[in-house]
């Protein structure tokens, strides 16, 4: 898949839960290998099925063959999730998903990412997010220090 390959964004449905779970697990394993596994694959699927999908506005990115490349979810003014398949990083898919979330927002967004996740931090900073607060990890179940970012639409 190259930068010009067509990617289709659409609202996520309950039928996407398994594919979203596979992307979530693969992304975290590849990009965040230092994180402890605090939930089983089955519990992660249940969380996406019963918490993320019904409780957030969520979108998926699909490739030409209909395969799920990534997803994002918006919970109020928080970018709650944005995960991509590890093999499609740096090809514009994350930017497409983030732009969709920004369009759906009220012009302000916040998000948390782990302080050690330098790739995610650089991505969000390139897209106008500003680090606002740093935490020692007590607020998340992985006990991993994180950072709060905020974005405000211009104009």
What does this structure look like?
Helix 1 (17-31) crosses helix 2. The radius of gyration is 15 Å and the shape is globular. The protein has a single domain, classed as Gcn5-related N-acetyltransferase (GNAT) (Aminopeptidase, 3-Layer(aba) Sandwich), CATH 3.40.630. The protein has four helices and seven strands. It has 155 residues and is of the alpha+beta class. Strands 1-2-3-4 form a four-stranded antiparallel β-sheet, sandwiched between helices. A three-stranded antiparallel β-sheet has the order 5-7-6, with helices on one face. It is 33% helix and 29% strand.
List the helices and strands and how they pair.
Blueprint: E1 8-11, H1 17-31, H2 41-55, E2 57-62, E3 68-75, E4 78-84, H3 93-104, E5 108-114, H4 118-126, E6 130-135, E7 146-152
Antiparallel strand pairs: 1-2, 2-3, 3-4, 5-7, 6-7
């Amino acid at each position: 898949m190259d930068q010009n390959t067509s990617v289709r964004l659409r609202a996520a449905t309950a039928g996407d839960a398994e594919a979203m779970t596979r992307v979530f697990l693969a992304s975290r394993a590849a990009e965040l290998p230092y994180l402890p596994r605090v939930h089983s694959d089955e519990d992660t699927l249940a969380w996406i099925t019963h918490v993320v999908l019904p409780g957030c506005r969520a979108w998926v990115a699909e490739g030409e063959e209909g395969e799920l490349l990534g997803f994002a979810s918006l919970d109020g003014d928080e970018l709650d999730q944005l995960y991509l398949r590890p093999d499609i990083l740096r090809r514009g898919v994350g930017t497409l998903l983030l732009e969709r979330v920004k369009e759906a927002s009220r012009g302000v967004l916040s998000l948390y990412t782990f302080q050690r996740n330098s790739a995610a931090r650089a991505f969000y900073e390139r897209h106008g997010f500003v680090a606002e607060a740093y935490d020692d990890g007590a607020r998340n179940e992985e006990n991993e220090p994180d950072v709060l970012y905020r974005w405000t639409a211009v104009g």
